[in-house]
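Reposting from the mailing list since nobody answered there.

I have sequence plus structure tokens for a pair of proteins and want to know whether others read the tokens the same way I do. The first protein:
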Amino acid sequence: MRFDRPGILVAGGLAALGLAAIVVWLGIGPGRTLHARIPGMDRPAEATATPSKPLEGTLTTGNGQPADLAGSWPQFRGERLDGIGEPGVALARQWPSEGPPHLWSVDLGEGYAGPAVYQGCVYLLDYDRETSADALRCLSLGDGKEIWRFSYPVDVKRNHGMSRTVPAVTDQYVIALGPKCHVTCLDRVTGQSRWLIDLVRQHGATVPPWYAGQCPLVDNDRLILAPGGPETLMMALDCATGEPVWKTPNPRAWKMTHVSIVPMEIAGRRMYVYCGSGGVAGVAADDGSLLWDTTDWKISIATVPSPVVLPEGKIFFSGGYNSGALLLQVSRAGDRFVTKTLVRLKPDQFGSTQHTPILLGEHLYGIREKDKELVCLDLEGQEVWTSGRQHRFGLGPYLIADGLIYVMSDDGVLTLAEAIPTGYNQLAEHRVFDGHDAWGPMALVGNRLLVRDFTRLACLDVSEKP
């Protein structure tokens, strides 16, 4: 075989030049760490914390009226933040063949945001794709008609839906956290804007991969948020003004996750527990000081379920993506708090991808990630019973009231079962939606159950009939 010598010389020269360029690039080029692609991570980077012109919103009114109905579900997981309905309301233990009465429904933008209810009004954070705006809507609990909506412009691209959070409602205010970390405080009755802030630009927050999932917590006229900025892990804002009351330093540079903040009390000290991107922190409720933190519990992809506070200073954590679950003990040791991991559960024992398990009595109820079955655990994390392979629910929400558990499947089938530790006993089921991704948190007010799928909100009558 013949070789052309000039050609060989040219090819060799080009190869040498190419090799030299690679060496130079590796030597002086910017270092980059390659990461696995996660949905949402290909979005443009958010702006850093810089002063910005406040967003201006638009208020429009409808012909709806507040319903004369008692009861409330004023924030994420209800009045007591436990996912359990108010006591003393008799609920049906069987449904007719056509299911519980369907009272009304409304169309929504794509997402999983759940409703809050207060004095006959339903408050829900929506996204209007036609106007590219977050929209905090106030609907009548009686018929679903819109009373008012407050919207502000923000470009949110489709990323497994847009809206995800539940507003917090007080006698004066309704406060919501939007998918791009805008915080809105409105007059609860009129919808007039009190203040509107951008956690990204004003506090250095980073929008989580699947948008903000942290539900605002209002405690003693203070709004408690965890922006996870370079300087601020958590902060308390005055609900009346939006001005900071205190800020918690962020020495570990933990970023915002999809988890909501949970209050608890240990040895007479009230604190807020939050799962940041690198671990868990306990923050003093009075002054925002960091009381304790631990890296024993963290999820690399997406941390979603909130901590569940158990008796005697114990906290139960669970997550998806093969993270399993963990039982943590927080104790006071002199003038400081210390933590100790008591139990770590493997994913096949228990793990919850999206929703927070519910503590009822001395047992926990939740949907296990591995097989999508409803599971009952004791307070040590040991399995008591499971719904079995014939009863699987996907990633849907659940809620407990009157000794009953309501569970929604991915595709919109609502199941009613007994919330008891002796075994799984299904009482009824009914298809509410012919849709998909029915993942939004439920709300129960009196005998009215509010449920949603990807694009609709429905109100059902689940009262006990004579």
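The second protein, same order (residues first, tokens after):
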Amino acid sequence: MADTDPAELERRIERSRAELARTVDAIADRVSPRNVARRTVARAESNAKEFIFSLGERIGDVVGVSPRPAKLEGESDDLWADEQPSLAPVLIGVGAVLVVGAAVMLWRRRRG
């Protein structure tokens, strides 16, 4: 049958309250606007980095230039002396073309 010891019932109730309080705190932390925004920004940043890396690889394949690997902390600069040219000018050029194209499209849309 059921345990009717009042002290045991109080202990169970206190344990249940503590578990419920932890659960409510965890839910509040998870849905906090600040934490949601922080996770969203981190996810967007990760997706942007992945997209830029992928874009750099594809442009490098088209142009025939392999992207430079990232320099690790503690590596000397002379390891990079004989590297191929950087993709930075190509990416800057592609970005400039995209910006000019978008500006022309906006100008035409407003004009017409």
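Reply #1 (J.P.):
I read it the same way you do. The radius of gyration is 29 Å.
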